[in-house]
């Protein structure tokens, strides 16, 4: 779970089992979100494995509100037509594994009162030599074939310099 922690506010975290009788050990880690405002510092997404009959997914909480070192640039003309001005970025990387990947972004929910329009772009290649595969707006899904041995980067930016919190969901499978 993630949230934007305000300075001077105390936060309490409740951990409990599904049932009242559930007891056991657990591990809790609390820390700042990644500073992934540029491609070279992209947060690595864990590899998602699947079998032929079901899909697997993961979701990560992120924010572009603190990415002040992220350049504000228009999308390359090969990745969006016409180019639009975008706000600070949050970058993620995932390795190719010869599977179909689908990614989507949600900016609405209990984790944030700020809703903002986004552009989610998928790039293939190293940060210094990328090829845009596709770009979608908020509430849309982008799908691509992630070839084994290739690097993929996902860039999420707010349209018109907007910033905010989001959940990025990536799934693999049918």
Please render the helix and strand layout as text:
Elements: E1 43-44, E2 56-63, E3 86-95, E4 99-106, E5 118-124, E6 131-137, E7 141-146, E8 151-159, E9 165-172
Parallel strand pairs: 1-3
Antiparallel strand pairs: 2-9, 3-8, 4-7, 4-9, 5-6, 5-8
Descriptive notes:
This protein is about 0% helix and about 35% strand. It has no helices and 9 strands. The strands form 2 sheets. The protein has a 5-stranded mixed sheet, with no helix packed on it. Strands 2-9-4-7 form a 4-stranded antiparallel sheet, with no helix packed on it.
Structural class: mainly beta
Computed CA radius of gyration, to the nearest angstrom = 17 Å
* Secondary-structure element string: EEEEEEEEE
Biggest sheet: strands side by side, in what order? 1-3-8-5-6
**Number of H- or I-type helical stretches:** 0
What is the average per-residue confidence, as pLDDT, rounded to a whole number?
78
Strand proportion, as a percent range, falls in: 35-45%
Which blocks of ≥5 consecutive residues have pLDDT under 50?
73-77
State the share of residues found in helices, binned by percent. Answer: under 10%
How many strands, which pairing sense, and closed or not: the largest β-sheet? 5 strands, mixed
Strand element count? 9
> What is the global morphology?
globular
- Through-space gap between termini: 27 Å
């Amino acid at each position: 779970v993630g949230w934007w922690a305000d300075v001077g506010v105390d936060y309490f975290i409740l951990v409990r089992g599904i049932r009242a009788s559930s007891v056991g050990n657990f591990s809790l880690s609390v820390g700042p979100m990644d500073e992934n405002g540029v491609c070279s510092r992209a947060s690595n997404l864990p590899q998602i494995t699947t079998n032929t009959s079901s899909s697997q997914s993961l979701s990560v909480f992120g924010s572009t509100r603190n990415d002040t070192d992220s350049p504000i640039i228009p999308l390359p003309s090969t990745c969006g037509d016409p180019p639009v001005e975008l706000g600070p970025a949050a970058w993620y990387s995932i390795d190719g594994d010869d599977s179909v990947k689908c990614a989507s972004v949600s900016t609405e929910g209990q984790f944030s009162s700020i809703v903002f329009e986004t552009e989610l772009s998928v790039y293939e290649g190293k940060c210094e030599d990328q090829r845009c595969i596709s770009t979608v707006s908020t509430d849309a899904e982008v799908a691509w074939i992630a070839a084994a041995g290739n690097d993929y980067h996902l860039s999420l930016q707010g349209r018109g310099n907007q910033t905010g919190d989001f959940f990025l969901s990536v799934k693999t499978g049918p």
